[in-house]
Amino acid sequence: MLTVQDIDLYYGASQALKAVALEAEKGKVTCVMGRNGVGKTSLLKAIAGHQAIQAGQIFWEDKDISTLSPHDRAVLGIAYVPQGREIFPLLTVQENLQTGFAAIPRALRHVQDEIYDLFPVLKDMLGRRGGDLSGGQQQQLAIARALVTRPRLLVLDEPTEGIQPSIIKDIGRVIELLANRGEMAILLVEQYFEFARDLADDYVVMDRGEVVMNGTGETMVEEDVRRYLTV
Predict the structure, then answer these.
(1) Cα 166 to chain center, whole Å?
(2) Taking the alpha carbons of 98, 99, 101, 106 in that order, is the dihedral positive or negative?
(3) Strands 153-157 and 185-189: what pairing?
(4) What is the CATH number of domain 2-85+152-226?
(5) What are the structural domain ranges in the chain?
(6) Could you say which DSSP state residue 13 is in?
(7) Residues 6 or more apart in contact with residue 217 via CB below 8 angstroms
(8) How many angstroms separate the Cα of 90 from the Cα of each of 83, 86, 95, 148, 163?
(9) In this predicted model, what pLDDT tens digit does every residue of 200-212 receive, in sequence order?
(10) Which 3 state secondary structure label does DSSP give 176?
(11) Would you say the pTM of this structure is higher than 0.90?
């Protein structure tokens, strides 16, 4: 389980997160929702180790990871798919996938066949440069690259952003499949309400750097949540 305990995060004098707390369990999808600029991405960066927190603690599988580097967190099984995908445009699809090898033991440094079962389009494009792929294909590549590391916590920042509806459905099916296996916790930041609603076992709503609402997917009241999503 991931446990975030009352974390604060600052950019200079500006406070981005205020006593934010949440949990994400294996076998479940936890969705973080809110408008742009309320701290969702800052929260994910704090969990992945890309931004230092100034207060609170972050635990993964009972280990305090609050001060660990991003690489050390990846070695522990935390995989982060950032907003905007950030694949390497000049590397081939195969080379992009192989960049995930850095976080795993040498004996495991191969791309699992399952990756191509989840994202069949990638198998046909192994020799193409990442920058030549469509936005939806790049998103699939970014998720696949994270899965190469065999994560136990998958952190996804707005995977539906700028993606065509057919690929949104494909990504949703993959997330649901991975969660249902019970071996992985999935933490998902999402603004597309219907996508989050259909996947969420648990949800957290943020506003102005704070958690203002949380609960289970079954008890989510759409009208209440949407108040914090509309501008």
Answers:
(1) 20
(2) positive
(3) parallel
(4) 3.40.50.300
(5) 2-85+152-226
(6) T
(7) 31, 197, 199, 200, 201, 202, 203
(8) 19, 12, 9, 19, 21
(9) 999 999 999 999 9
(10) helix
(11) yes
